[in-house]
Amino acid sequence: KAGKARPPPPKPLSPLKQVVALVSKVLSLGGEEASEINSALARERKHRKREVSLDGATRVLKALGQDFGLSKEQVQQAILNHPPVLLVPVDDLLAKADCLVHEVGMGRADVVNALVDQAPMFDLPLDRRWRPSLRFWHRAVGLTREEMIEFVQTDFRTAFKNVAKLEPRWTFATQVMNMSVEEVLSQVKVFTQSVERHLAPRYYFLRSLGREGSRRARLLTPMDDEGFALEVAEVPPADYEAWLAKWPGSADAAEMERLVLKDARWRMQWLVQDHGPLELWEPADPPSRPKELQGAYWRGLYGAELVPVDERGQELAPSEDDEWEEDDLQASDGPAEARPPLARRHGRREFDEGQAQEEEEKKEDEPVEEEEEEEKE
Q: How many Å apart are CA 259 and CA 277, to the nearest integer?
């Protein structure tokens, strides 16, 4: 008798589904969270042509747990904040951490908190985004070392905004609105608004009413045109719409275009002309720690084995409670004191009023269409 036909072998999972399955297992995620990660990675693969690989995601999970010392809960939070962080090469993550430690001067705990809270920012290029932004704050704004550290810790997203957006907004705020450095840094909402569409026309409209000084702080609050007319200018929205229709051909608009926008590309050349490690501080301004210890938490960044060290540069013997198991990457919770404190400054950071501008910047070179999720089996 002919034997029964064997059932066909199960269809292998795609790399995307393998990654989602791995992350779900390692981080004990629910179905809704796994679906969210699946959708985000599918978008990156389809629209930005990024490779989704099980090996790459495994390396990232290991690095977050072993090299950065994140707890299981912190890794979960970082990935849920921005699933594409799984696609960032580990060397890039370590290079950005190293930049924060000994180019900016942040401590390890603050870098860990930044990685958890601001995972989307770690998906941006170091040489084309991070370092030009840091040069802007140091060279154009004139922040000292202490001010730079405080500013990056307080408003990480603004600190690493696209310098092509930062520079015109800074110039308009300081040269047209006559705001001081202290005022601008205390009103960082100025960096979430477009000069052409929001700041300039609204400022000049208030000036035509003689109210630009008394209502400057409210001018910086993100809102639509109708809200601005009613709440800030206190005029009928139709009046502002009529004035706005004439604005592009006005002398003020032409001057703003020349000063803030056209000249900006010349001013920015010296901010982005080099891409190497930053030398923000003169030799006369020595670092707070010996140079050989700066970035010591990620010692061996460029090829040698990564060894955790303390503030004095002494190697720390890894604790079994702190290590992620090699076979399945399952993290032991371990004693609470073995884990770096979360100590989050703002709680889980959602994209707030600056989200639209930040997403617009990411889409400039790579337009993103509406996503089609991969069919679930």
A: 31
Asked if 257 and 339 sit in the same domain, the reply is no
Q: Which domain holds residue 205?
A: 125-281
Could you give the percent of the chain with pLDDT greater than 70? 68
Residue pair 139/280 in contact (Cβ under 8 Å)? The answer is no
Residue 314: inside a domain = no
Q: Which of 249, 266, 281 is the last residue of a domain?
A: 281
- The full DSSP string for 224-259 is -HHHIIIIII-S-HHHHHHHHHHGGGSHHHHHHIII
- Taking the model in full, what pTM does it have? 0.66
Residue 236 backbone phi and psi in degrees, to 5: -60, 140
For the chain, how many structural domains are there in total? Answer: 2
Retrieve residue 83's tokens.
Answer: 């699933």
Contacts of 83 (CB under 8 A, 6+ apart): 36, 37, 40, 41
- Examine residue 287 and state whether it is found in any structural domain, yes or no: no
- What the block records as the tokens of 122 is 């770690």
pLDDT (mean) for 267-296: 45
